[in-house]
Amino acid sequence: MKVMLLANEAPEDFALRDDKAKFDAYMGEWYAFGVALREAGAMGESAALEPPSTATVVSIRDGVRKVEDGPYPDTKEQLGGFCIIDVTDMDRAAKWAAECPAHKNGFVEVRPILDLEQGDAS
Amino acid sequence: MSDARAIAEETARASYGRLLAWLSSRTSDVAAAEDALSDAFRAALESWPMKGVPDAPEAWLLTAARRKLIDGSRRRKTRAEATPALTLAAEEAEATARSKATFPDERLKLLFICAHPAIDSSIRTPLMLQTVLGLDAARIASAFLLSPAAMSGRLVRAKRKIKSAGIPFDPPGVEDLPSRLSAVLEAIYAAFGAGWDEADGAEAEMMDLTREAIYLARLVTNLLPDEAEAWGLLALMLHAEARTKARRINGVYVALKDQNAALWDRGLVAAAEEALSRAWSCRKIGPFQVEAAIQSAHAASILYQRDTTDDIAALYAQLTDLSPSVGAQVGYAAALAAAGRPEDGLYALDEITGALAERYQPYWAVRAHILRTAGDAASAVTCYERAIGLSRDAAVRSFLIDQKNTAAKRA
């Protein structure tokens, strides 16, 4: 099954990206995580995202398009990147998620990819 | 309940759980397997008590479920993958049911699935009662104070998650076993707690949920006989169950030390002691075993007039170490006071701080009791009033009001 790991990072993690002294260590952890996934043959598509301050939220309410400075400030942690992995089951996916660097200060959401081919109407 | 009826119902339930475990672990679709088996299970519960238990109960159930399986696969043409898998699994199960003397028991997989960390902890117990025991959603809903529609909805969502999130049916590996097993045991204990609450309410005849919990704990000890905590949980629940008749006389709550031991079910006490000694023999200490040992010491003090107060205080100290909780700490305080150390008891209560203590009824009841014994009647009355205000249960409340009035006379 294909599963997306959504890396939700804490503000202090995003701050590391601009911290010259700590940037290498921060990126190094992500790099190692990617290498581990690739070596296990589990790695699908992945990307890191620009920080939440760059986000724009678009919504349409009553036919009116509204464009706002984002993101939704519901949580402290914000999406910092994602990767799609190929695993046998949720337990394997959860083990990978536990190795994802985002979990130290933030959290990782594990979401199965909707398989339209299978036609599961449940 | 007649013996024949009890045997029939127990066999029907065991066979249902085994078949459901078998079918759903092969299709990952608990809901579809339940659908297929539900009518057959109901038919078995009607027929077996009268006509006797068939030689191959699982084969009987599968034959009865056949029409539903075929209908189901027609109705669900759109769910391309799921249904052929279920029909295939059912055929395999049927062959197994006919060829083997006993149908393989894979209910452990079902227990682990129900208490999987990816399943919301508040739905684990209901899920277990429904899938492993075949209890209907309305019955479960009443025990958990939810409307049947709300409970059904939550159960459906949980089963859908098992399927779509790819939660594996394989039992956990060695590394995960302790935490996964403790989740299973906690869900079982929660069923027991729900049964306990029910028994406290008006509908005392509904308290069979405690028996269902004991059944599940027994099942775990049968399937994992080397797991000490499973035996510990079983012993703990059997001790509590043994005292059911003595715990409440004409709706009035009777504290353990005042209970009439002649009303205890001595068979259950013996079974509890046996389970506890099985637990010790595994040599792996855990909180359920210590809680069971505390109940065992209480029982011994009443049955054999032995002073076990020091033992109980030592066990509570161990419990607060193994599994720190407000409940354990309050129990520790009460045990210290009972062992003639009221100051230490108050000190243990003072260690609990914040909102946890504020709204915890036993905290105030124990504090009141210790203060009263220590001779501070005025403070005791104030604490009793807090405890009374926090009691949900009418019988416990009137017990506390009596205690308060006794204290007030001395103030």
Can you give a write-up of this model?
Chain A is α+β, with helices and mostly antiparallel strands and 122 residues long. Chain A is built from 3 helices and 6 strands; from the N terminus they run βααββββαβ. The mean pLDDT of chain A is 87. Chain B is an all-alpha fold. Among the domains of chain B are: 1-103; 106-224, no CATH class. Chain B is built from 21 helices and 2 strands. Chain B has helices at residues 3-27, 30-51, 57-75, 82-99, 107-114, 121-131, 137-143, 148-164, 177-200, 208-223, 228-242, 244-247, 266-281, 287-303, 309-322, 326-338, 342-350, 355-358, 361-373, 377-390, 394-410, and strands spanning 248-249, 252-253. In chain B, strands 1-2 form a two-stranded antiparallel ribbon. In chain B, β1 and β2 (252-253) form a beta hairpin. In chain B, α16 (326-338) packs parallel to α19 and α19 (361-373) runs antiparallel to α20 (377-390). Mean pLDDT of chain B is 90; it is low at 202-206. Chain A binds chain B through residues 1, 3, 88-91, 93-94, 110, 112, 118-122, and chain B through 31, 78-82, 116-118, 160, 163-168, 176.
Biggest sheet layout of chain A? 4 strands, antiparallel
Mean of all residue-level pLDDT scores of chain A: 87
Rough outline of chain A: flat
Based on CA atoms alone, the radius of gyration of chain B comes out at: 24 Å
Helix content of chain B: over 70%
Number of strands of chain A: 6
